[in-house]
Amino acid sequence: MLCRVLDWFNASADSAETARRPSPQTPPPAPPGGAQGIPRPAERHSPSLNFNWLIRSRVRGANTASATILTFLDSHCEVNTDWLQPMIQRVKEDHTRVVSPIIDVISLDNFAYLAASADLRGGFDWSLHFKWEQIPIEQKMARSDPTQPIRTPVIAGGIFVMDKSWFNHLGQYDTHMDIWGGENFELSFRVWMCGGSLEILPCSRVGHVFRKRHPYDFPEGNALTYIKNTRRAAEVWMDEYKQYYYSARPSAQGKAFGSIADRLTLRRKLNCKPFRWYMENVYPELRVPEQEAVSSVLKQGGLCLEALGRDSLSLAECRGAGTNRLQSQKWELVEPLIRQQDLCLAISAFTAGSKVKMEPCNSKEPRQKWKPRGPALQHMVSGLCLDNQGTNGPLVISQCRPQMAGQSWEPQVIA
Ligand SMILES: [Mn+2]
């Protein structure tokens, strides 16, 4: 069954659509389209006259729909067997859920249907670029049943099921956004922060034709549209975190984005939570870019961790005080790195007992990634903890036992 509703809107939308060549494991973002089961508006809208026709057409479709649950789809998709019931069921149980199917890949070249991976969710980086990502390992381990819904920080685009009164209550769409792009962020932030939730339901599968090209390969006009739309999402919803969006996308600064007064009013009226809440509860995996470095000493017993060259890490008498602290005892904990000037704490191998040394910092290097675990410092990939072995012998990583003195590192900020 082809979902061919409002497809003349989308015929033009497609020329501006996101599009990497997808592999079945990592399908690219699905841009938006029309709403299903909705009569076509009587008059045709010319894109040159109505720049926001796509988003507006979705709102018009939603207003016209007589059902209590709305299903939004792109025109260039094909639904799979029994795709709709599982999503409707989830919304019936809780009307604040916004439910998306797994989006399979329909080949652009031959319309072949390729199953997408069933353990991906929607994520993004600070430039508000959508990406599919693996479910965090803890959530993956907690899944006892592959049919369980997958909580997702954002939805890919315009394919979802939502209660109509909830859609209206939450303010439909930001109709001052142009054409398409970025509205999935605005909707996703709004749903989470204003009391709802977003999920991908593995029992439901919808195929989608992804385009080959990336939106930023397109002429400037499309990039500007994307900037305007994401800027509106950032300005209305991201609070102080919008600074990271502007750092990641400096070209957005100073670009016009229209008035957001009505959306800010909506946010106040709905009493939505701050973006900090979203960061802490919905998407803690999104790392805040390098925080301002704070120098600390790492204390164990009465001694301080000291680095004298790359291969000489040891505990030594704490020397100096405040800003006069010995340079070799000053550390900056900027997750995931533990750094001293340009060198970072790194393991030499991933097995217990491996020595720890200093090497030039590289936040992408798995051997350099650490996180606090109680008083201990845990190497993120091996799961082992920084250990002095209680003998002030060479520093190694060993099985985490944070209560052991040799694994207790108390960072003390240097005033
Ligand atoms: Mn699409």
From TrEMBL:
Keywords assigned by UniProt, alphabetized: Disulfide bond, Glycosyltransferase, Golgi apparatus, Lectin, Manganese, Membrane, Signal-anchor, Transferase, Transmembrane, Transmembrane helix
Coiled coil: none
UniProt KW Lipoprotein keyword: no
EC number: 2.4.1.-
Pfam family, one: Glycos_transf_2
Enzyme class: transferase
Essential cofactor(s): Mn(2+)
CDD domains given in the database record: pp-GalNAc-T
Primary location recorded for the protein, binned into one broad class: Golgi
Domain Ricin B lectin: residue ranges: 291-412
Gene3D superfamilies: 2.80.10.50, Spore Coat Polysaccharide Biosynthesis Protein SpsA, Chain A
Family assignment from sequence similarity: Belongs to the glycosyltransferase 2 family. GalNAc-T subfamily.
Name by which UniProt lists this protein: Polypeptide N-acetylgalactosaminyltransferase
Organism: Ataeniobius toweri
